Every structure is written in C-alpha cells, then in structure tokens.
Amino acid sequence: QAFTELRQNENISEPLYGGIKELISALQGQDDVLLGVATGKSIRGVKRLFDQQDWHATFVTMQTADPTASKPPPELIEKVMAEAGVDAVDTVMIGDTTFDIEMAQNANVRGIGVAWGYHPVDHLRNAGAHSIADDSHGLSEAIDSFLSQRR
C-alpha cells in the first residue's frame, strides 16, 4: 500500500540501473534493432516510466500482464514479436527473473539474464539463460554478440 501511495506522487521517479538509459539510446539508433517491452508490470507503471524517460517513441510495442497471461507462458513475447513484425530467431528477451527466461524458452527466443535483478544468477542459468550480464556494459556485449550472429 505504501508503494502504491508513493507512486501516486508525480515527483517520485524510479531510477534506472546504471548505463541502461545510454544502452537503450544506442540500441534505438541502430537501423536493424526494434525495441519492445514484455513485462509483468501494470500498463500504468510502464507508461509512467515511459513518461519519465521520454520513451514513448523508443519502443515499438509494450505488452503487459494486464490483458494477457503473465510469464512464463509465451503470450507476452509472442505479442511483442507480432506487433514488431519479427520472428523468434531474431528476438532476444532480457530479464531479471526465471519467469523472463522461461518465457523466452517457451517462445523459442534467446534469453539474456541480468545479475542485478530479482532472481539469483544460478537460478537464471538453471532456467536456461543463454548468457548472464553483470552490468550494462556486459548486457551491451551480450546484445552485440546476438546481433552479430543474426547479421
């Protein structure tokens, strides 16, 4: 309840992990990259983040668990791929929970885990993460590796 009340205050911001804003900006600038969101967060929470970061034009699709089954079933990421017009082989899911990685597995897409989130690294590996990034630089390298394999 306290968290919900805090979020009602428009002046409260949720900081991003270090280097993430720059990474998203760099990815957005690449002609062969489309960014989408598949999250268990509410649409209200994601829209608020997009408002704070001025990201409404950055992501081509935003799928939340509000109208759809949440993770790990593949529906969220399948909707992202459909709206973006991409195939599973050209998709990577980045996540901080085993649910994210399991959803990637269920949709036959590559899953990159991040070490700074909710679930421990060994759980992400056991869930099938193709790689684990320790920080935004490592995430950038993992994405670059995926993209170079796709090009």
Structure description:
The chain is α/β, with parallel strands linked by helices and about 150 residues long. It has helices spanning about 1-10, 20-30, 45-55, 75-85, 100-105, 120-125, 135-150, and strands at about 35-40, 60-65, 90-95, 110-115, 130-135. The strands form 2 sheets. A 3-stranded parallel beta sheet has the order 3-4-5, sandwiched between helices. Strands 1-2 form a two-stranded parallel ribbon. It starts with a helix and ends with a helix.
Distance between the termini: 47 Å
Largest sheet: 3 strands, parallel
Low-pLDDT parts are: none
Tell me roughly what share of residues is in helical segments.
Answer: 40-55%
Rg, nearest Å: 15 Å
> Strand share of the residues?
5-15%
Element order, helices and strands? HHEHEHEHEHEH
Order of strands, main sheet, comes to 3-4-5
The total count of helices amounts to: 7
Provide the residue-averaged pLDDT: 91
- The beta-strand count equals 5
The computed structural class is alpha/beta
> What oligomeric state do these chains adopt?
single chain
General shape? globular
What are the salient characteristics of this protein?
151 residues; alpha/beta; three-stranded parallel β-sheet; two-stranded parallel sheet; 5 strands
